[in-house]
Amino acid sequence: CCLVAVKKVVEGIMKKLLVLVIASFFVFSVSSAELLTIGGTVTPNVTVAITDGDVALTFLTPGVAATGDASAALKVISNKKNWTITFTSAHAGVLTNGKVDDELSTIPYKLAVAISTGEFGSSAVFNNTLSPAIQLTEPKTIAATVDARTNKNGGTLSLTASVDAQGTNYTTDLLWDSKYTYSDTVTIDIAAN
To answer: By CB neighbour count within 10 A (0-12 exposed, 13-18 middle, 19+ buried), where does 136 fall?
Structure first.
């Protein structure tokens, strides 16, 4: 008698467990899962901008080296590790007064570029052909060869133009004519490597 009662209780528990197992199977078999992939694309950005005006050289004393605001600044912003800036003079590194028939129509100048290395990647390496100062008789470059990425504020390059004092040869070193204005244009291009 007691065994029959225990058997009925066990059978009742077994039926309830079976119903729970079947019910859970339906609950879990009806659900589904989806995967969401989130991706991002970074647009390459390598730019250079002049942030501190034109260079204005002044010759106060005849034949003496130039003075004046001889510097300008460039701001480079890059999310690329390697890039090259090319400096090209319109007149092969001379200031010209536009008078081609005048033997003293040009003034040779030099350009130097200093790099604020702390504003680029901590392991940045540069090949700077404009240090020390050099005449731009042909295009010159600054190549960033190792991790020269910047933060969003960019990195600074300081440009300095200079004109040496004239020599003392009476045939070749006549003073430049003060009635003319002399100028050159330097094109500055940047490209990712």
So the answer is: buried
pLDDT over 90 at 76, yes or no? yes
Please answer whether residues 144 and 81 qualify as being in contact, where contact means their C-beta atoms are separated by less than 8 angstroms.
yes
pLDDT in tens, 103-146: 667 889 999 999 988 898 888 999 999 999 999 999 999 999 88
Q: d(Cα 160, Cα 110) in Å, to the nearest integer?
A: 8
Q: Please give the structure tokens belonging to residue 4.
A: 């029959």
Q: Report the predicted TM-score, pTM, of the whole model to 2 decimal places.
A: 0.77
Residue-wise DSSP of 9-70: HHHHHHHHHHHHHHHHHHHHHH-----------PPP-EEEEEEE---EEE--STTSPPEEE-
Residue 33 tokens, joined: 């899962």
Where do we find the tokens 């033997």? 103
Nearest to 154 by CA among 64, 62, 70, 46: 46
Residue 173 to residue 104: CA distance in whole angstroms:
9
